[in-house]
Design brief:
By secondary structure, this protein is α+β, with helices and mostly antiparallel strands. It contains 21 helices and 19 strands. Helix 3 packs antiparallel against helix 13, helix 4 packs antiparallel against helix 7 and helix 9 packs parallel to helix 14.
């Protein structure tokens, strides 16, 4: 039953000698959150004022999704929609931007335990949002892009989530002490913030009364629970029936700006403590050994981007990275390892949400990675999260001796992302290495780790190694001879896109090149990547039947499976259901029950 130690294990590391495997490799809980950009396909005759508001577009797409499958609203955010397939839809916009055109729709996959299942879930989500956008009942020709940067340079994309060991030994004790401290601060923040939020609700009510809004009574009678999702977290009390988001939209913008910044000020001490925890206590080993993998995998999994100066990058999102570890978005920072979900958690949603903080004491927590591109190609998407899952297994087993460590994190990421010729080298613990050389070293260590693990625990690891190595091979061929692109086209996004841009000719205008850059990611029959697929069916990894299954229901043996089952059972029925990721609330008023999704 024990895994055999591989030659990559450090013989002086006690954890590697004592580690006992009890689950197959690459079988941890994992998931993806992808931000999709919406646009009007032919806006030439429309002024900016005539374009649809982002909130309107989001609501119409959500309505189309409701027609596709059962759904439930979020416990704390009425704009959030949880799906019967285990995923969730969220409106990614600041309250001050609800009436502006554009906007992002974030859709999260269900939590799964297999890279192959995650790929199927991601493709089912891509399919769902594309069809819902096409079916949205508007007078506009709406399209959706799955990319990482728009024509104006705004950066977004996707984030990866992995269940991992937050700390061990004395560091776990220190981590739990800080959780208890943050828990007490959470209570104080909630007590201080609630009067301010109630004042906003009252001010919004007064503003709507003065405008003679006839819809207020209907909205208040229908909405049982309401919340407001800002950078500070989700706000609202699930039993009060107050529409906080409506309040923020009803008062003058200067009032909203003032209240939002007061809320930030109230939570500033929490931010300082939490920032210390995430930078010095939580996931220390993972952040140390994953950074080189994440930086160098841009060569394999970058989606490519053409900037305003005509320079081609492996990843626009990588160029925007400005720190290794931080909250992400609180003050505009863009970290590799994102802990904004922790900040949102400790900025308590309601008094009831304080109960959920107990879960933060557990040894295993959610590790979120922000250095992640939105991929169209199956191979790039699969290797992106499958390789991370396997290296996390190595880290937890203590098999880290052969893993290179970046010496200059942010600078190395920018250098790699700027070089689509794949020749630039960055400083590591193994000397100056290129992105492909780093990948080869990590892959070699991963092979030794898998070979040293008992066959009964291999799981999907052999497939991960094969697909990972195949991408390194085709990119090595391209690096040797830039004419060798055939094997990579359809498998590596940035190289496929570069191939299409080069096909325009040397004298092509920047606007024509940028059109390829953007429409490569369009999720429709007009999208340039999708137009490639009929000619290269071998690049598709995912089974269409599995995609259809995941369109309706999540894989068994996960919290998502129970969440999806409850949504199918209660949505549209007599019992009112609202849900969060870890629990659902069933019923109304004093009869409300909390049902946890823990396995």
């Amino acid at each position: 039953m024990n895994s055999r130690p591989s030659s990559s294990h450090d013989p002086n590391t006690a954890s590697s000698r004592a580690y006992r495997r009890t689950t197959p490799l690459v079988s941890r809980l994992m998931g993806m959150e992808t931000e999709y950009a919406t646009l009007v396909a032919d806006p030439q005759n429309l002024s900016t004022e005539d374009l649809p508001a982002s909130l309107f577009v989001y609501e119409q797409i959500c309505e189309a999704i409701r027609r596709d499958q059962p759904t439930a609203k979020g416990v704390f955010d009425q704009d959030q929609l949880f799906l019967a397939n285990g995923g969730a839809v969220t409106f990614e916009s600041h309250p001050l931007m609800y009436d502006s055109p554009g906007g992002l729709i974030e859709i999260a996959t269900p939590e799964v335990r297999s890279p192959d299942e995650l790929l199927a879930c991601q493709r089912s989500i891509d399919q769902l949002v594309a069809e819902a956008t096409a079916a949205a009942e508007t007078s506009y020709d709406l399209r959706v892009l799955k990319n990482s940067a728009d024509a104006l340079g705004h950066v977004y994309g996707c984030q990866e989530n992995y269940e991992a060991e937050v700390a061990s030994g004395v560091w776990l004790v220190i981590y739990r002490v800080f959780v208890l401290l943050l828990w007490s601060m959470q209570v104080v923040n909630l007590v201080v913030s609630m009067p301010l939020l109630w004042a906003m609700v009252f001010a919004g009510w007064i503003a709507r009364r003065r405008r003679g809004s006839a819809s207020d009574g209907d909205n208040q009678s229908v909405v049982d629970d309401e919340g407001f999702d800002s950078d500070d977290g989700d706000w609202g009390d699930a039993d009060q029936g107050q529409d906080v988001r409506m309040a923020f939209g009803s008062v003058p913008r200067w009032v909203t700006w003032t209240v939002v910044n007061l809320l930030r000020l109230i939570h500033l001490p929490t931010l300082f403590v939490l920032r210390f925890v995430v930078r010095h206590v939580a996931f220390r080993k993972q952040r140390r050994y994953l950074s080189a993998l994440l930086a160098s995998r841009l060569a394999l999994c970058g989606s490519g981007s053409l900037d305003h100066d005509g320079r081609y990058r492996l990843s626009a999102k990588a160029m925007a990275i400005d720190t290794i570890t931080d909250m992400g978005g609180f003050r505009g920072e863009r970290p590799v390892f994102v802990f904004g979900h922790w900040l949102a958690h400790y900025c308590a949603k309601t008094f009831l949400s304080l109960v959920s903080t107990r879960g933060m004491l557990a040894r295993r927590q959610r590790l979120q990675i922000g250095l992640s591109d939105s991929n169209m190609a199956d191979h790039a998407e699969y290797v992106k999260f499958a390789s991370v899952s396997l290296v996390l297994d190595m880290i937890e087993a203590g098999a880290v001796a052969e893993l290179p460590i970046l010496k200059k994190g942010v600078a190395s990421i920018h250098r790699i992302a700027s070089d689509w010729n794949l020749v630039s080298q960055v400083p590591t613990s193994h000397g100056e290495l290129s992105a492909l050389e780093i990948q080869r070293k990590i892959l070699a260590a991963a092979k030794q780790f898998v070979d040293g693990t008992s066959d009964q625990w291999h799981g999907e690891a052999t497939t991960v190694i094969q697909r990972w190595e195949s991408l390194i091979t085709v990119l090595a061929e391209f690096r040797q001879d830039h004419r060798q692109t055939a094997a990579a086209v359809g498998r590596v996004d940035w190289l496929t896109k570069r191939f299409l841009i080069d096909a325009l000719g040397e004298n092509a205008a920047w606007t024509d090149k940028k059109k390829v850059d953007l429409r490569y990611h369009e999720l429709s029959a007009d999208g340039y990547f999708y137009q490639l697929l009929p000619a290269k069916p071998e690049v598709m990894l995912v089974n269409p039947d599995n995609v259809r299954r995941r369109r309706r229901s999540p894989p068994a043996g996960t919290p998502a499976a129970r969440r999806g089952w409850m949504i199918r059972e209660f949505a549209g029925g007599e019992e009112w259901i609202q849900t969060d990721w870890t629990y659902a609330m069933i019923g109304r008023g004093g009869k409300r029950k909390r049902v946890n999704f823990d396995l």
